[in-house]
Design a protein that fits this description.
With 106 residues, the chain is mainly α. It contains five helices and no strands. The longest helix is centred in the N-terminal third of the chain and has 27 residues.
């Protein structure tokens, strides 16, 4: 499975460590909140809201260097717009992977 990394943030920052820390801090704060909203939307079968939640999460997936994960999120977002949960398990595995990464990267 593709692993989260800071390569995109490092490239974006052009070596500015303060900028890197700020971006990572935002991700660390927002990701759990957005993930929780997604799970609530899925639990209530509110696919329109779940698609919006996935849309927000996919940007963090991209920033954390998960190119394949971004593709999965993009397709899953489209599926949700059609009230389909196809790719749900794959998407949620990505969320679990990111959650572990953020917990390990203090």
């Amino acid at each position: 499975m593709e692993q989260p990394n800071l390569s995109f943030i490092t490239k974006l920052s052009n070596g500015d460590k303060v900028f890197e820390e700020k971006i990572f801090k935002v991700i660390r704060k927002e990701f759990p909140e957005e993930k929780e909203k997604y799970f609530l939307s899925i639990k209530s079968k509110n696919y329109t809201k779940a698609a919006e939640d996935v849309h927000k999460l996919k940007h963090k997936i991209s920033i954390l260097g998960l190119e394949k994960g971004y593709d999965v999120a993009e397709k899953y977002e489209d599926n949700l717009k059609e009230s389909s949960e196809i790719l749900k398990e794959e998407f949620e595995n990505i969320l679990t992977n990111i959650t572990s990464y953020l917990a390990e990267t203090l």
